[in-house]
Specification:
transmembrane; Protein RER1; flat; 202 residues; mainly alpha; Rer1
Length: 202
């Protein structure tokens, strides 16, 4: 190996090491995210705790209201996407693609969200963490009359939710499903039809 090759490796070795470090950190972070997927209650508990800590910090510091307002708007947009179907029924024709079930005896189809629960939680938590970091920098503490921001947010929330509820009523869907419906036999005895009934019939 020549001297020029060794110099080249020393020059290009440092970026490679830094890149490998961040790649490894990203892999560890993704691994922890994957492990936390089934624990929705625990995940949201952590997020609510971070929200409480952030609100207490803002109350004590008496500032960073514009950051809080932006965080509220961001969370509202996430919530609306969480409540909305992945495919907007208003954009479909009657014979175009799978639609939401509108009758009780219609084939069961689970509600597919535009923003899945896990992505909703992840984005909401990242927003809180970023807002918390902003409270450590005076540049983000823009002077503002906070009651006006509260009034604007309440008005925006009411208008947005009213529009969303009208959309849900118009297309007759609920943004919550609890798994596949349990079907029963023709002679409904109050118990689900099971394999034991087939064995008894045989």
């Amino acid at each position: 190996m020549s001297e020029g090759d060794s110099v080249g490796e020393s020059i290009h070795g440092k970026p490679s090491t830094i890149g490998s470090f961040f790649t490894r950190v990203g892999q560890i972070y993704q691994s922890w995210l994957d492990k936390s997927t089934p624990f929705s209650i625990g995940r949201w508990g952590v997020t609510l705790s971070l929200t409480a800590i952030y609100m207490i910090r803002v109350y004590i510091l008496q500032g960073w209201y514009i950051v809080t307002y932006a965080l509220g708007i961001y969370h509202l947009n996430l919530f609306i996407a969480f409540l909305s179907p992945k495919v907007d029924p208003s954009m479909l024709d009657e014979d175009e693609g799978p639609a939401l079930p509108t009758k009780q005896n219609e084939e069961f189809r689970p509600f597919i969200r535009r923003l899945p629960e896990f992505k909703f939680w992840h984005s909401a938590t990242k927003g809180i963490v970023i807002a918390m970091i902003c409270t450590f920098f005076e540049a983000f503490n823009v002077p503002v009359f906070w009651p006006i921001l509260v009034m604007y947010f309440i008005m925006l929330f009411c208008i947005t939710m009213k529009r969303q509820i009208k959309h849900m009523v118009k297309y007759r869907y609920l943004p919550f499903t609890h798994g596949k419906r349990t079907y029963r036999g023709k002679e409904d005895t109050g118990k689900p039809f099971s394999v034991s009934h087939l064995a008894a019939a045989g």
